[in-house]
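Wed. Picked up where I left off yesterday with Alanine acetyltransferase. The coffee machine is broken again, so keeping this brief.
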Amino acid sequence: MTDETVALRPVREADLPVLERFLTDPDAVGPFQWYGYPDPGRFRRRWAENGLLGEDGGQLIVTTGDAPLGFVAWRKVVVSPSTHCWNIGAQLLPEARGRGIGSRAQLQLVRYLFAHTPVMRVEADTEAENIAEQRALEKAGFTREGVLRGIVFRDGRWRDGVAYSVLRGDPLPALT
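Structure written out below (tokens, as returned):
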């Protein structure tokens, strides 16, 4: 980890080209998140509608200083008629990876969601081969729950995933 201060903030219109890179540039998303070319206008439309912040989820820009380095996102997972949790994820530009930024950003998002919503559980998942993201989640205070066999289709084959969670009241690390 470096001394870089990681911050989260709402998406600005000027950030949309950074987000759009994740939809159009396989190198920007990396080997574990490229699923082919999706709708390239998705972020722009959602930003115009609600600034990428809604009741069922949202996205925040990850920064060090003023530089947008990627985003964190969350979406509502309905568990029962009276219960939901959040599923979170992060996507960083290649130049931001391997510096501890992802762990700190995900930890900040967990703290934000526990502070501003009454959920008991925040969960995340990643491919079983994505060791870097598994380490990032563990550094952010997540507990590995198990393997999800054949959960995602990417690059011509089905792949296993790994499920993680953190519960309200679990001790969280002191990453800054």
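Quick read: Residues 6-167 form a domain with the Aminopeptidase fold (CATH 3.40.630.30).
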